[in-house]
């Protein structure tokens, strides 16, 4: 079975700016694929090219094994998407927005199906409310309902949790997991919420200045044998001095603001025992091996100029 998305040497050149630079990646069927990059890395430009909203300068895009531009209508009929803020009819109710989107997609959904879709995104009780009365977070959820009503194989989401409160973010996370694991949908999701992506994504692509800098399974990228542990001590200065005289001295990272040691996960119990032996009053010992650490280590902090 061919990949759901196959991108080869994709490039987008604007006057004086290369927004996407020889980008290649694949997305296999059935997983959640995180698409990450700092602001200006080229994520939104790439997504717009996947949806034929922006014409590539060079490269090839295939969806479901078919060249995108040669089979545009056929393949995009199997795609649902929410890009930034969803396009809604603000004077229509939530129910009528979803109903209209189903008709535009060539699917005449009955009331039960529309209500089920609204319930899935937590808006069943607001089915008769006009979209103009919704908060931004509610509009995001209504946009998701509209994107899903024609039962697409592929869902492409650009910052789907914008405007959501913590509960709303958690609800979207559960929905994405359900759609992927229970309904077998493939999801490409762009987000700046790295902790959320670590929880929901199976694989990920990280780009910087339009170029791929990392791609792979999340657990393969986040190597447990190379992690950082943060020590919170009652007396940080004394703790640093004691560690500097110990066998952990070479693992201790410089800096006065935090006590950080780089080690493998299997070494954490030995560190804990030695901290007690050194007489250090430990308040907390927390691993800092995370997607955020990895992301910051491989992307550049300064951009000039770049595409969004």
Automatic annotation (TrEMBL):
Domain (ABC transporter): give its ranges: 5-234
| One GO molecular-function entry | ATP binding
Highest rank taxon of the organism: Bacteria
Pfam families, per database record: ABC_tran
- The organism of origin for this protein: Flaviaesturariibacter amylovorans
User: What family does the entry list?
Assistant: Belongs to the ABC transporter superfamily.
What is the recorded name of this protein? ABC transporter ATP-binding protein
Q: Which UniProt keywords apply?
A: ATP-binding, Nucleotide-binding, Transport
